[in-house]
Every structure is written in structure tokens, then in C-alpha cells.
């Protein structure tokens, strides 16, 4: 699979899952040993658990859209920088509803199999900015690092 085909596959997965909710189609793109890891989930998720998490988040944020800002590929890896935009209409992942339109940056590292199946997604969200937009307490990095 060429680097351009890998990037196209990753963009298609993002569109099918987060933007359109076509989760059965997206799940067909996962390898049998698929894992999802994230900065806001405490443990790796299997393909079916990932699908359930996306359903839960899309249910809480029905106006959500994910815009891919940058997509880079090398070897069997793809890196995306995305912006998630939407409003939390009902509680999700321990966060309260809000009438604010949120903009959350995310970086994801994708590992693909030679046939194009997605083996792993590891996503890091800018949770401090997210918490600040919700009006929740945040702590500067230096404050967190100090004893």
C-alpha cells in the first residue's frame, strides 16, 4: 500500500467513524488485533469497545465534526493532526453538558498492516484546553510537575 493510499484510508476511517457514524463500515477496516489507545481512556480498547466509545461520544455531541488539519505517512505509520468541533449536549466521559461550541486539538498515530487494515490508533487530545473551554479547573504544566 502506498503512502498516499494509507493516508486516504486513515481519512476515510475518520470520516466514517467520527463524522458520519458509519461504524460497521469503519470496523471492517480494523485488523483482528486492533487496539485504540487515548489520553482520555485509561486502558486500550478493542475494535468493538472503540465502536461503542465513538457511539457514546457521537450521542453526546451530535453536531460533532472532525477536521483533519495535517496527515503524514512514513513506513507503516500515519500521523494526523485534527480538530474536533462540537457541543456536548449530554454528559460524556465524565464531562458535563455545555452550550459552548468546543474546539479540541488531537494528534493520532496510526499503525497499518501491509493490506491496509488498521492495527492501532493512539490518540492524544489537548485536554487542558478542553477543560478550560468547559470552564473547569486547569493547572499549568509547571505547577503539575512541581512537588
Automatic annotation (TrEMBL):
<dbReference type="Pfam" id="PF07366">
    <property type="entry name" value="SnoaL"/>
</dbReference>
<dbReference type="InterPro" id="IPR009959">
    <property type="entry name" value="Cyclase_SnoaL-like"/>
</dbReference>
<dbReference type="InterPro" id="IPR011721">
    <property type="entry name" value="CHP02096"/>
</dbReference>
<dbReference type="InterPro" id="IPR032710">
    <property type="entry name" value="NTF2-like_dom_sf"/>
</dbReference>
<protein>
    <recommendedName>
        <fullName>Ester cyclase</fullName>
    </recommendedName>
</protein>
<dbReference type="GO" id="GO:0030638">
    <property type="term" value="P:polyketide metabolic process"/>
</dbReference>
Amino acid at each position: 500500500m502506498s503512502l498516499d493510499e494509507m493516508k486516504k484510508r486513515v481519512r476515510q476511517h475518520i470520516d466514517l467513524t467520527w463524522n458520519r457514524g458509519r461504524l460497521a463500515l469503519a470496523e471492517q477496516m480494523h485488523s483482528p488485533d486492533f487496539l485504540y489507545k487515548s489520553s482520555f481512556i485509561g486502558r486500550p480498547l478493542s475494535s468493538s469497545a472503540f465502536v461503542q466509545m465513538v457511539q457514546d461520544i457521537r450521542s453526546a455531541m451530535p453536531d460533532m465534526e472532525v477536521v483533519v488539519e495535517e496527515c503524514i505517512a512514513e513506513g507503516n505509520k500515519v500521523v494526523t493532526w485534527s480538530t474536533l468541533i462540537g457541543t456536548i449536549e449530554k454528559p460524556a466521559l465524565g464531562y458535563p453538558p455545555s452550550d459552548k461550541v468546543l474546539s479540541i486539538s488531537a494528534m493520532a498515530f496510526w499503525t497499518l498492516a501491509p493490506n491496509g487494515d488498521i492495527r492501532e490508533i493512539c490518540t492524544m487530545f489537548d485536554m487542558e484546553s478542553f477543560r478550560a473551554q468547559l470552564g473547569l479547573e486547569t493547572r499549568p504544566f509547571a505547577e503539575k510537575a512541581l512537588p
